[in-house]
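seq as requested:
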Amino acid sequence: MASGRLSAETITSDGHEAFAADVEPGDVIGEAFAFERCDTPFEVVADEASEAWCFEARDFAAAFERHPAFAKAVVRAMCRRQCRTLQRMSEVMTLPMAGRLEAELLRLAACDPSGRTIGRLPTHRQIASRIATQREAVTKELSRLERQGAIRKERHGLRLVGPSWNP
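struct tokens:
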């Protein structure tokens, strides 16, 4: 991934979309398909204007084997994604939905220099997929946060307001 931001989702056995990963500059996505036959349904969507490099599976595997610097960069990208995935898994296992939503809002706001503005808020369905809950629960909790004055809607996004959002 050269620039921008992507989201990767998979489809569960019962047909539901499940968030898999954010893809940021420097990340690699789909590398498993270069090495193994992988039948898992997988969809990657651009969340903003993005630029990415695409490789044929055989070319990717060959570059991985022939160029140690390339292989090292790929492994580092995979490790970064694994760390983010483990963080999300621990949140799903230990935090109530409201806590997972707050953690996700902080992650989304981290893209902004102030760390408090989400320029383009994903849909409630997309947020629900990211935090393993239902869209209705996200809508209800965002409304509660707005009533409390913890968030303020701004155009297509929102702003985190108040000291409770300090990292």
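The longest helix spans residues 68-94.
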